[in-house]
Amino acid sequence: MTNLSELKNIGPVSAIKLNDLGIHTFLDLLFYLPFRYLDFSKTLNISDYIFNEPATYSGTIISFNNIFTKSPKNIQRATIKDNTGTLNLIWFNQPYLSKNIVVGEILNVAGSVTIFQNKITIVTPQIGNKTGRIIPLYHQSATLNSAWIEKTISLNLQTLLQNYSEVLPTNILQKYNLFDIKKALIQIHQPDSQSQLLLSQNRLNLHQSLSLLAQSELQKQNILNKKPAYILTKIPKTNFLPYKLSISQQKAWSEIQKDLLSNNPTHRLLSGDVGSGKTIIALLATHLTSANKHISLIVAPTQILANQHYTFFKKILPKIPIFLLNNKNKLPKLPNNAIIISTHAAFYQDSKFFKKIALLIIDEQHKFGVLQRNFLNKLKNPPHTVSLTATPIPRTLALSVYGHLDISYLSHLPHWQPVKTFIVPEPKISDCYKWLKNQIKTTAEQAFIVCPFIEDSESLSTVKSATAEFTKLKPLFPKLKLELIHGKIPISDRQKIFDDFKVNKINVLVTTPIIEVGIDFPNATVIIIQSANRFGLASLHQLRGRVGRGVSPGYCYLFTDNPNSPRLKYLTTHYEGQQLAEFDLKLRGPGELFSTLQHGHFYFDEKSIILAKSIIQDLSKAKYNLQKLIINHSSLTSIN
């Protein structure tokens, strides 16, 4: 049994919806981990409530009313009583509760007590099996909510665990007092207590760290025994550049140029903040390779970004043959100085294709999975490889995680100015839209409005969707041209929308986070991020970097129902990706780390990295096969 649809609670339609979340296999589902938890395990008397702290309460139902209004919304009110006091409960649009809540019976409810209409109240409390325990919360889609995902994993957990086994020897588990991986996974999905959950989260974090360090160690061993596919010797002039390189660009280019001219394969990571000028360094590397009569390949994470690179390279290097490779076209016979720009499609070419490549540049390297990396490792004479990333890496951990790579850092360009960032609470949203309308009218500049979802989610009524927001905003901006874009729109139509936006035929682009990586529109100066608390710091920083890339200053507005969020507040006063990465490292508890693991950004935990290094040293001495430690399922290694 390997198909998802053969599991309990999953039919063919549900399996497709799981695929949209990046869940294709049993292991993907097993490692689809909660991003946080609601702890309702504490049971309190009503009079012992603590404001805004989750807990479970039990009492006799003394009243229940279904209130229907003229609007589509209806309200359910109830009151429970124990021997210490009374507690008010309120739900919205859940009239079916009248079948489950009967006056005179005992009701267990879970939630956080607050003041609502001057009364001590729990708004939308949980009832039934949601009370008295720790509830895992999973990233959900518009069609699959967290409760369904929790139920489905719970029903199938033992079956899923049959397909996974502990990778560490018993003596290592005993020496370091570690949870067995299966026990840890059970506690992650069905926690018994906070202490058990914390131990399990630490074990899963170690699991990730071991995989990263094992990859690094194996790649280091692999590199030492290889020669590059081609030797490059000629240094061409760079007087064709449209501007003078910054000091950090000059340093990075000097380091990469030295690598390319050596007799060893280049393995370098170019880490640069949003807008630091990584692409021009990549262009210089391909230009040097072409001058040596050899072929370069640039691999981008999306077709849109590949198209953008293609246009830019053709403009700056008009005399060099440049080709765009995608799933639909085939390459002609290549001149020996060609530059190829592609997506993951390049990795599906035959083996002869890669034997022609002297330089491989991978844009946003964290978005490429283990299979692609293993493919490169198997090449007897690999191409020089330069990886680009805008995902900030805490310097304290970079050498541990990327020990097999040389690392160059880019700082901001000299003319860079930070994007002014503001938190906008719900009462101020209409004022912000009025400002946006006037800003576009007076400056002819453009804006993005980013929503987490494509469609509305019944289970997350407060989280904005792009389609609903687009419909709502059109009448608010009658004289402006608005357009909607998201990942389900065909790639050719998306490209047309981006092209129209580029030439200012569109004033406001309502979008999902598909614009996060690399998209460059110099005339876009405003970005509004709906439900900003739903995004991680790295994603917010990337999205913010889509505006203010031209001569005019950029503005970022974070719409949220939680204006006191420490993460959002920090983002409004800090603009360096490195600072944000270090802050994220300090701020996150283990309960939040899995959110970033499942969205393509590794969580760097210093303690687990140090522990993993010690374990790998022990395993290496014992001649243990480190390949067993590498995680090969998509949930923890690539974008979902």
Automatic annotation (TrEMBL):
The alphabetized UniProt keywords are: ATP-binding, DNA damage, DNA repair, DNA-binding, Helicase, Hydrolase, Nucleotide-binding
Q: Where does the signal sequence lie?
A: none
Pfam families given in the database record: DEAD (PF00270), Helicase_C (PF00271), RecG_wedge (PF17191)
- InterPro entries per record: DEAD/DEAH_box_helicase_dom, Helicase_ATP-bd, Helicase_C-like, NA-bd_OB-fold, P-loop_NTPase, RecG/Mfd, RecG_wedge
Q: Name one GO biological process term.
A: DNA repair
Q: Where is the Helicase ATP-binding domain?
A: 259-410
Q: Per its record, what are the GO molecular function terms?
A: ATP binding; DNA binding; DNA helicase activity; hydrolase activity
Residues of the Helicase C-terminal domain: 428-591
PANTHER family recorded for this chain?
A: ATP-DEPENDENT DNA HELICASE HOMOLOG RECG, CHLOROPLASTIC (PTHR47964)
What is the official name of this protein in its record?
Answer: Uncharacterized protein
Native organism is: Candidatus Shapirobacteria bacterium CG_4_8_14_3_um_filter_35_11
UniProt lineage: Bacteria, Candidatus Shapironibacteriota
